[in-house]
Amino acid sequence: MGKSPAVELEVEDRVVRISNPDRVYFPARGETKLDLANYYLSVGDGIVRALRERPCMLHRFPEGVTGEKVHQKRLPNGAPPWVRTVRVHFPRYNRHADELCVTHLADVIWAVQMSTVEFHPWNSRAADTEKPDEWRIDLDPGPTCTFDRVRRVALVVQEVLAELGATGFPKTSGSKGLHIYVRIKPDFGFQDVRKAALAFAHEVERRAPDDVETTWWRKDRDPSLVFVDYNQNTRDRTIASAYSVRGYPEATVSTPIRWDEIPDVDPHDFTIATVPKRYAELGDLHAGIDDAVWSIEPLLEWAARDELEVPDEQ
């Protein structure tokens, strides 16, 4: 059977060619490469806001999500001239990479043409890649942890953030956990943000000791508890963005949610088949994130008070 003919999508003032649009990427319901592109068009403002001007690693699946996954740091060859990049340095290897830097929705759709399913942005921006402006709270359940436990921990996170005067923007991970993002002033480097995240994780653990742990080594963690993963704020550590599809057969989506949805939320309800309607009705629930900027200084004071240190990043 031959390949399906290419289609051209008008994306704002650009045209993006989608080759082999009928290739099935998600076998659970049969969604195709073109379905994936149309999904990203349906949440355009949201995905661009989540990725805007951030170095972005791509998870590509040239044969669909049941095939080989390609972790792509460098921009794939063949990019049109309007696709921007940002150069980042990797001290451990003394190398650099020119990564995708999204500024328009067409950049996202072109990445889909290059078989990208997942978008994994840095928590810093092109203006200064060494100063994060996003603090990420990753509630990572152990192998035997229930999602009810994740929900309980998320509400403790909300409580602590409120006491700090910080605004958290929750989303599903598209897998088994929850993420909460906080926009922060880009005044500190990765190690300080990571230390602040550790101080916060310790406070959440103190308030919910039966549900949470912050043990560094995975092998030493209780598999039934939630790990508040402060390491997601390490330099060059990335997680799937808001509105990113995940590389699973069911095409689940990392989806922004309201705090009042958390007690009943089921991450499996959010897929490329369901999120477009939700987005059309609710808009981007993270739309206000850039207006809710907070300083991590109180958390650094907690870290100093508790004499907390984090291992070297490199």
TrEMBL record:
<dbReference type="InterPro" id="IPR014145">
    <property type="entry name" value="LigD_pol_dom"/>
</dbReference>
<dbReference type="InterPro" id="IPR052171">
    <property type="entry name" value="NHEJ_LigD"/>
</dbReference>
<protein>
    <submittedName>
        <fullName>Non-homologous end-joining DNA ligase</fullName>
        <ecNumber>6.5.1.1</ecNumber>
    </submittedName>
</protein>
<feature type="domain" description="DNA ligase D polymerase">
    <location>
        <begin position="32"/>
        <end position="286"/>
    </location>
</feature>
<dbReference type="Pfam" id="PF21686">
    <property type="entry name" value="LigD_Prim-Pol"/>
</dbReference>
<dbReference type="GO" id="GO:0003910">
    <property type="term" value="F:DNA ligase (ATP) activity"/>
</dbReference>
<keyword id="KW-0436">Ligase</keyword>
